[in-house]
Amino acid sequence: MMVRAIRGAVQAPRNSAESIRSVTRELVAEVMERNGLEPAQLISVLFTTSPDLNAGFPAAAARELGLDRVPLMCASEIDVPDAVPRVVRLLAHVQVPASRPEVTHVYLGGAAALRPDLADGRPGAKGTAVIVGSGLMGTSLGLALTAKGWWVSLIDRDPVVALTAERRGAGHALIAREPDEPADVVVLAVPPRELGASLADAQKRRLGRAYTDVCSVKEGPTADAAELGCDMSTFVAGHPLAGREKSGPQAARADLFAGLPWVLCPDTGTAPEALTAVLALVRASGAEPVRLGRADHDRATALVSHAPHVVSAAMAARLRPAEDEALRLAGRGVADVTRKAAAAPGLWTEILVGNALPVAVVLEDVAADLTRTAAALRASAREGTPGAEREIHDLLRHGQEGRARMMAAGALGDLAGEER
């Protein structure tokens, strides 16, 4: 027999005792299985956690797997800026037969970015994905998938952005090289105007077997892709109803999609195997898949996302010339109403222009309501004007009823994601 050391690491989705317990059990079990070990072969195991994991002891989870007679130790690591977050590491000293001295180091999920030279993620991966675009959405999806055991490759036109996403644990940056083999799913996390060209390029490079996107407009970008000659049978148009006013890989969160709707728009030409693959990715992200036609999607998002953004921006624009005395009185109400206005104007201009007619219809209706209400308020300032208060009351009541209907319908999107 000879003594060998085995390294391993795994990323926890959150700092909780149950999360630390779950990922530690997974890591230890994988180390034991991939190396064909029995508990009697373990000499000792040292566990360390990144400083942001302090809700539980990894050793406690190891004891649950039958390692109660193995010396175990836990320690906290150096707090290095920009290190991969929420990582549990282990260093196990084991006895192995001299005739079989090779050992397999195990780096799971997002922790595979720590040592891509040692990680053997594909054989045990639950799925494979290539994400084109390492901004907020692409990096958040990478974090969610790697936490679920997927092997994720990251592509971005800016290598620095892709490497930043890799350091955050969202996957493996592909810099000037192609994936070893086609992925189960390629996700195009690019702006709407770039979708067609990005899909054509990804299919030409044979990056995957199925393709989807995260654009919040479906009709125009999908038509662009078809005109460019893309294979639409392998493409499933998608849109996760999630986001933040912040942007870039540093703003990404592994739980960004958890419990929120992710709209998929397959049509009669969609290959069943492509839809199955994309559904698996959506569920792995933690989102809830919802099927809609592309036109239905664009009308719905005009009402519940795009037009509200314009209304929010219009109200926020009234604050720009306001007196400082008035702004100092601002509270949660106006902050809630103007929250969406903080998002990047460039991207949102592209989204609104891409869904122009459905958004215009909603805004015209909102403008008519506001015009009537403004007229009623002016009338109420003049004594003896009948019906003015009723006009005002009706709008407020209709608003109350509309919000109640939305909540009763099980609305999750922006309501559940406000603090994300």
- Largest sheet geometry: 8 strands, mixed
Our measurement of the CA-to-CA distance between the termini, rounded to an integer number of angstroms, reads 52 Å
What strand line-up does the widest sheet have?
Answer: 8-7-6-9-10-11-12-13
What's the pLDDT, averaged over the residues? 90
CATH class of the largest domain equals Alpha Beta
Poorly predicted runs: 413-420
Instruction: Determine the structural class based on helices, strands and strand pairing.
Output: alpha/beta
CATH architecture group name of the largest domain: 3-Layer(aba) Sandwich
The Cα radius of gyration reads 26 Å
Give, in order, the helices and strands: EHEHEEEHEHEHEEHEHEEHEHHHHHHH
Q: Find the count of extended strands (DSSP E, 2+ residues).
A: 13
Total domain units: 3
Task: Report a brief summary of the structure.
The protein has 420 residues and is α/β, with parallel strands linked by helices. Helix content is 42%, strand content 16%. It contains 15 helices and 13 strands.
Description:
- The chain has 420 residues and is of the alpha/beta class.
- It is 42% helix and 16% strand.
- It has three domains: 2-113, RutC-like (60s Ribosomal Protein L30, Chain: A); 125-292, 3-Layer(aba) Sandwich (Rossmann fold); 299-417, 6-phosphogluconate dehydrogenase C-terminal like domain (6-phosphogluconate dehydrogenase C-terminal fold).
- The strands form two sheets. It has an eight-stranded mixed sheet with strand order 8-7-6-9-10-11-12-13, sandwiched between helices.
- Helix 6 (195-204) crosses helix 7 (219-227).
- The longest helix has 25 residues, at 356-380.
